[in-house]
Amino acid sequence: MEQLLIVEDEQGIRETLQDILELAGYQVLTAKDGREGYESIIANAPDLVLCDVNMPELDGFELLGAINQRLSNEIVPPFIFLTAKVEKQDIRQGMGLGADDYILKPYEYSDVLRTVRLRLDKRKKLLNNQEVSSPGLAQNTFNKLAIPCDEGLELVSFDKIIKCQADRAYCIFHLVGGHKILVSKPMKEFENVLISNQFIKVHKSTIVNIKFAEKFIRGKSGHLVMSDNSIVSVSLRKKEELIKLLKSQN
To answer: Which fold has domain 160-249?
Structure first.
């Protein structure tokens, strides 16, 4: 049985959609906001997501951007946005993140069922042909990093992150203003998305935002002084690359 996830903050809409889809033979999960939706997608890997755009905590675009980051090397489930927003820039933003379809409110439930079936059939065909690629991996269209924390998920702008440092099976994000986030995941989980957003790995245990680098101290390998006055070790093989980047910043 195909499994769908509804992410909708309005309880009446959420429950009605659930009833309609279950009557149509689908297994249906629900989430009342984007944060719950994120956790459900990671935990349950639904076949398709029906998602409102305007929600508190984490809106639909932020949710899809966060999922793109988290599942950067995996298959992202098809996303259908349910929205009253009809501006072209909103549609472009969603499609740029990899949205598969839009259903505009108010909508007929027959339209929802038809669109869901169409997208599930297309996904099945692509899977059978082994042609699936993760949609929406346009990292530059989403300027925040989704960081798991005690509250579930925190979205942090890339330009607020000074560095990320490994701490055994954990890592620590150092942010502007002295704020730190301890994450119970290894640094390698975030390495690709950080580097694709112009960070640089200067050491096996440290990735830095080059815009916060204040000064390079030469030595056998070297050290980097960051804007928070911390000193970061630089590996010998990263030394020349870092020097070139610092020169290009000036």
So the answer is: OB fold (Dihydrolipoamide Acetyltransferase, E2P) (2.40.50)
CA angle (187 as vertex; 242, 173 as ends), nearest 5: 80
| Global pTM value | 0.73
Q: Per CATH, is 3-128 categorized as 3.40.50.2300?
A: yes
Alpha-carbon distance 210 to 241, whole Å? Answer: 12
The alpha-carbon radius of gyration of the chain (Å, integer) is: 21
Tell me the residue type at 234: V
CB within 8 Å of 89: residues ≥ 6 apart: none
Averaged pLDDT, groups of 10, the chain, 250 residues long: 95 96 97 93 94 89 88 80 76 75 88 94 78 43 79 86 93 95 91 89 94 86 91 89 78
